[in-house]
């Protein structure tokens, strides 16, 4: 991860986007246990003020105020549309595609376990538009 961050900073990774989904506290623990990585992380939460390699850092709670899977899907789709649009990606027809694929994930997964697969599917579709 440290080498990837350095590659973004020194120009070796131009035009690249990387998406990580990690457990709560992962980035903070990385910063504490590996100071060289911690210096590079400089975590920015709840803001779009500085688009960079570490933007956006979203806590699960920011997406998870919904009680029903369909509500979670709707909020997640809205967030991905906002991110793709902000980064200059093509959002034409994206909402419909995200909703359709997301609904398929929900139908295949019973209980709270749908979120991981859902976010992965939505992220991959969104990345295709950048």
Outline:
This protein has 130 residues and is mostly helical.
Can you describe this structure?
The protein is mostly helical and 130 residues long. It has helices at 2-9, 26-33, 35-41, 60-63, 69-86, 94-108, 114-128. The two termini are 22 Å apart. It folds into 2 domains: 2-41, no CATH class; 60-128, no CATH class. 13% of the residues are buried. It is built from 7 helices and no strands. Helix 2 crosses helix 3, helix 5 (69-86) packs antiparallel against helix 6 (94-108) and helix 6 (94-108) runs antiparallel to helix 7 (114-128).
Shape: globular
Largest sheet, in brief, is: none
Radius of gyration: 16 Å
Please identify the structural class as seen in this structure. mainly alpha
Query: What number is the mean pLDDT?
Result: 81
Key attributes of the depicted protein:
130 residues; mainly alpha; 2 domains; 58% helix; globular
């Amino acid at each position: 991860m440290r080498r990837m961050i350095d590659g973004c900073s020194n120009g070796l990774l131009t035009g690249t986007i990387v998406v990580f989904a990690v457990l709560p506290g992962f980035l903070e623990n990385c910063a504490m246990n590996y100071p060289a990585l911690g210096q590079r992380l400089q975590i920015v939460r709840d803001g779009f003020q500085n688009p960079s390699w570490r933007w956006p850092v979203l806590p699960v709670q920011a997406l998870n105020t919904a009680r029903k899977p369909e509500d979670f899907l709707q909020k997640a789709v809205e967030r991905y549309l906002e991110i793709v649009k902000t980064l200059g990606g093509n959002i034409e027809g994206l909402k419909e595609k995200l909703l359709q694929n997301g609904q398929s994930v929900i139908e295949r997964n019973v209980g709270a376990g749908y979120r991981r697969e859902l976010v992965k599917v939505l992220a991959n579709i969104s990345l295709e538009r950048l």
